[in-house]
Amino acid sequence: MSSNVAPGLTWALIQEARARILGKVHRTPVMTSETLDSQANAQLHFKCENFQKAGAFKARGATNAVFALSDSEARSGVATHSSGNHAAALARAAGLRGIPAHIVMPNNAPQAKQASVRRYGGRIVFCEPTLQARESTVEQVLAETGATLIHPYNDLRVMAGQGTTAVELLEDLPDLDVILCPVGGGGQLSGIAVAAKTMKPTVRVIGVEPAGADDAARSFTSGQIVPMLNPQTIADGLRSSLGDKSFAEIRRHVDDIVTVSEESIIQAMRLIWEVLKIIVEPSGAVAYAAIVEGTLDVQGKRVGLVLSGGNLDLDSLPWIKAAC
Amino acid sequence: MSSNVAPGLTWALIQEARARILGKVHRTPVMTSETLDSQANAQLHFKCENFQKAGAFKARGATNAVFALSDSEARSGVATHSSGNHAAALARAAGLRGIPAHIVMPNNAPQAKQASVRRYGGRIVFCEPTLQARESTVEQVLAETGATLIHPYNDLRVMAGQGTTAVELLEDLPDLDVILCPVGGGGQLSGIAVAAKTMKPTVRVIGVEPAGADDAARSFTSGQIVPMLNPQTIADGLRSSLGDKSFAEIRRHVDDIVTVSEESIIQAMRLIWEVLKIIVEPSGAVAYAAIVEGTLDVQGKRVGLVLSGGNLDLDSLPWIKAAC
After folding, report:
1. How many domains in chain B?
2. Is 0.90 surpassed by the pTM of this model?
3. Residues B23-40: tens digit of each pLDDT
4. Which positions in chain A touch B55 (Cβ < 8 Å)?
5. Are residues B163 and B38 in the same domain?
6. Is A193 helix (H, G, I), strand (E, B) or coil?
């Protein structure tokens, strides 16, 4: 490896992550359905990260990052900017280690998200809902507290933690032909790609993202990061732009990135609720949406699909809002 | 046993049921949650019959009844009256055996319930939505087809099948102090009580029913069956009156029957969705409602709760209807 190339995410980092988070997060189950298999004419294996601690895969990366800190680093706590699943996951991980978590959130963040961070003992620092305010507030928190920033996805410790999902999936199902994974900032997709391609070089790894937040697909095609300026999707966990670290792994290891419509996301989410009898959030249904929409030909294939999370506001469901 | 007492449900029948349905229905998982445990100050073990084949525990009893028939009986098929989970479960079981299922349903039964029966290959016979029309239509179907009637709950084969839920639960968790089970017609509660008290005589078995359909509680107290004339509850699976066979076992083996409010049922259902991330129908949330409402003191206890099913119309959720 030449000296001007960053080392990036390695299999060793993922193995360390796995050992580090063992017992602190769930080994999640894989669900199947004869009904959904016969509709897809494929063998579908749903990796249930909606059952993960704090309700999403984010617990893996956050826990790895927090427990990877040295004692002296850890003493000053951790900080991040997020109004989503990473915020709750980081608060929980910090609580497990007994250190502070400072979470910068826009002052219009939903009450449920705030409550979730507080339940895990996190300290919320509000800012105006602009990118500039968020960045300056994070800088201020870091300066005041000496906390370590744990980025939601553009961080090798986080990416390594997310990769453990694929380790479990391929241990349970070594015969998989393809793995479908949602992509937002790319933390999960990059971790899964590195893990999966190491364990089974022939497995295909495909990212799926909403057409209304298709920066990853465009970045993948053009070979350079295309930022997402005005994402329009119900999948609130997938509105972020790729980071340089996550993009580097995605370019190297991911086979393709495809997009799906909002209608397919909602239909996929509803089918998962109705048939599998489990709650996934819109972002968590995006991988299956690629099958519902017919974007991907998976006929006769053994497919792993990551149901990435299950946190959403039950007062506002997409198929009911339309009816009211 | 004196000659004028019907033999009733025995442990041998439940063991036979278990062997008979093995591989034809799921051994369902048990879920737990630190959050719900700490709220209840107890160890709660949720037996997930919402993940059962056809979405409810009814698959157990229906499958046992269908496969208990002799070949000559089976040839003429089975019949029942039900617009709920038993209908779909019986259609599915009959399909597995390759025999006809005639399902008598009121002509105002929801489309989703009709579709479910048809998907499993059942034949629907419509009748007017009155008790009289239902009974006469069933008689007619039986006369025309020679089918065997499989009652939704007042049938030892059905009760024995439902009892297998408790067998699995106590095999997985031999330390349980108490088992909470919804009660409608009493098929599940009677089967569970016989199985549980045989396997572990010290375990308490408690039935839970909606206050708006409290015939089982009143029957239990008075010592004779009090029919439910005008049930008022969202828990549509629990509106039936007890049968003589189910009531006989409930009197002998159940420790208590308690009631819960509609508000508690809805709150319990929502908590299960939010925290466990799984779909249960209102009837399936009733056992947990007794804990949410504080009806039962389970402090420090190891509690098994039967989540009996997960079939409902996702277009109409109780907490959203109110807001519209």
Report:
1. 2
2. yes
3. 999 999 999 999 999 999
4. 277
5. yes
6. helix
